[in-house]
Amino acid sequence: GEKQDTLQWRRGQAGTRGGAELALLDAQHATFDLTAKDRQADLDALELRAPNDGVLLLTPSWSGDKPALGASMYAGTEFGSLPDTSAMEVQIDLPQIEAQGVATGNSVELHPLGRPDQRFTSRLSWVASAAKTLGRESPVKYLSVRAPVPAEVIARHGFVPGQRFTAKIVLAREADAIGVANVAIEQQDGKHWIKVREGRGFVRREIELGVRGSARSRVLKGLAAGEEVLLSAGGPAQPDDAQPGEATDQAKDKDKDAG
């Protein structure tokens, strides 16, 4: 009887030790499995997978320099992009002095540089909030705007990222609009004035302006087609009966684009 009790006790002890050892092995397995997953995640983070087919475009830095082999880069710095060719847009950089009146929704005519036969029309979808310089070489500020390229146009002409385009932004298009040179417009107390010929002299007249371009502005009220406007007080007079030292401009209907 005593031997049987001893044998059962030893069996119980062996089972207890075996369970403890199995629990230890399970804990070690879980630790190794977690370590393996962490290492695999680190390896996956080093691998870049393209979300779509396309051409890799290197992203220039603020100074305009593109990433090069051996160059140092800060963590999180974008060094390139892979645009989706099924949804592309054109970025247009306008000199600040020529960007007056440009707004989202303006029509824009585009074609690849040197290929006017591939002309198409779009509308501005984004306008930068402020103008900025494009590089350290020039202090000139530019206003950036963007216009989407229709998918059917991309497929038809085979456009690719990085192509250069010629753009013409249309501020307004009216069949019988009246325009006047900006140099002839005076501004005072929030109102706009021009000097219009009456007889051999000029009288000051208030006008209401519409769309304003870099060189000319549309006149909504205050000026009729055919009237002559004083451009400046200096320079030679254009008509034979103009007073000495006065340059004039004839208001006329415009069926071309303002801007």
TrEMBL record:
Protein's UniProt name: CzcB-like C-terminal circularly permuted SH3-like domain-containing protein
Pfam families to which the protein is assigned, alphabetical: CzcB_C
One cellular component (GO) term of this entry: cell envelope
Subcellular location: Cell envelope
Keywords from the named record: Coiled coil
Annotated region (Disordered), positions in chain: 231-259
Superkingdom, taxonomy of origin: Bacteria
Biased composition range(s): Basic and acidic residues: 249-259
Record has Cell membrane as a keyword: no
Ranges of residues in domain CzcB-like C-terminal circularly permuted SH3-like: 179-229
UniProt keyword Amino-acid biosynthesis present: no
Record field: transmembrane: none
